[in-house]
Amino acid sequence: MAAATELTVGQVATRSGVAISALHFYEARGLIRSHRTSGNQRRYGRDVLRRVAIIRIAQEVGISLAEIGAALESLPEGRTPTREDWNLLSTAWRDQLDQKIAQLKKLRDGLTDCIGCGCMSIDKCPLRNKEDRLSAQGPGARRLLVAR
Ligand code: FES
């Protein structure tokens, strides 16, 4: 028996391991697409399985749904993302992840200085005023001046 060219939402859920409610959510966000049968039931092309896999992997590493949507939008309509597509997407996301990791390391190091301190000092606390960024806004008590 030949494989069906289209899948019901239940089949997509079973094959992808993703809840039907999540599939509906992805569809509402424009990440996957279906069409309606004459009986008003959703049908998905088989490419949806690969799209869902990409969405899940990207979410797993912290890529936002908006970013995932923009990346998938860049693929030609209805085409199953190829290995090459995946290479391009994952390379761009890796660079983004590297930046996030660097930011988180800085944050962790700042937190290490704060553990057991509790001063919350604008002058000394690296988390409260990272790299003294408030000084770039001018002299004086910047937070008090801005609040007025
Ligand atoms: S709380 Fe004291 S340095 Fe951050």
UniProtKB/TrEMBL annotation:
Family matches, as PROSITE patterns: HTH_MERR_1, HTH_MERR_2
UniProt xrefs under Pfam families: MerR, MerR-DNA-bind
InterPro entries xref list: DNA-bd_dom_put_sf (IPR009061), MerR-type_HTH_dom (IPR000551), MerR_fam (IPR047057), Redox-sen_tscrpt-act_SoxR (IPR010211), Tscrpt_reg_MerR_DNA-bd (IPR015358)
Keyword annotations from UniProtKB, A to Z: 2Fe-2S, DNA-binding, Iron, Iron-sulfur, Metal-binding, Transcription, Transcription regulation
Superkingdom to which the source organism belongs: Bacteria
HTH merR-type domain segment(s): 6-74
An example Gene Ontology molecular-function term: DNA binding
CDD domains xref list: HTH_SoxR
UniProt cross-references to PANTHER family, sorted A to Z: REDOX-CYCLING DRUG-SENSING TRANSCRIPTIONAL ACTIVATOR SOXR (PTHR30204), REDOX-SENSITIVE TRANSCRIPTIONAL ACTIVATOR SOXR (PTHR30204:SF0)
Name of the protein described by the UniProt record: Redox-sensitive transcriptional activator SoxR
Gene giving rise to this polypeptide: soxR
Keyword Metal-binding: yes
